[in-house]
Amino acid sequence: MGKKCVECDEEAKYKIKDSSEYYCTECAEEHFGDLDLLVVLEDEAQRLKDFVNKKILSPQEEEELNQ
Ligand SMILES: [Zn+2]
């Protein structure tokens, strides 16, 4: 389940470090000129996806990776 932006209820893309407040890209940029304060939620999702993708490689794909 995606998190909602606390400002506008859009799908959140960022989370404030050490907090449970979530922001969409627009609100995050508006409130925090410095996005370093924020954790990018997509990173985590992408890592998971990569992990899953690696688990379901076809034998041919695995062969290509090992070359
Ligand atoms: Zn927002």
- Counting structural domains, the number is 1
Lateral strand order in the biggest sheet: 2-1-3
Number of helices: 3
Q: Report on the biggest sheet.
A: 3 strands, antiparallel
Order of helical and strand elements: EEHEHH
* Parts with pLDDT < 50 across at least 5 consecutive residues: none
Q: Into which percentage range does the β-strand content fall?
A: 5-15%
**SS content category:** alpha+beta
Global morphology: elongated
What Rg, in angstroms, do the CA atoms define? 17 Å
* Cofactors, ions and other ligands in the entry: zinc ion
What is the tally of beta strands? 3
Distance between the termini: 37 Å
Fraction of helical residues: 40-55%
Quote the average pLDDT.
81
Report on this structure.
The chain is an alpha+beta fold. The chain has one domain. 45% of the residues lie in helices and 12% in strands. A hairpin with a 5-residue loop joins strand 1 and strand 2. The model has no long low-confidence stretch (mean pLDDT 81). The chain binds zinc ion. The site of zinc ion has 8 residues, from helix 1.
Helix/strand layout:
Blueprint: E1 14-16, E2 22-23, H1 25-31, E3 38-40, H2 41-55, H3 59-66
Antiparallel strand pairs: 1-2, 1-3
Bound molecules: zinc ion (ZN).
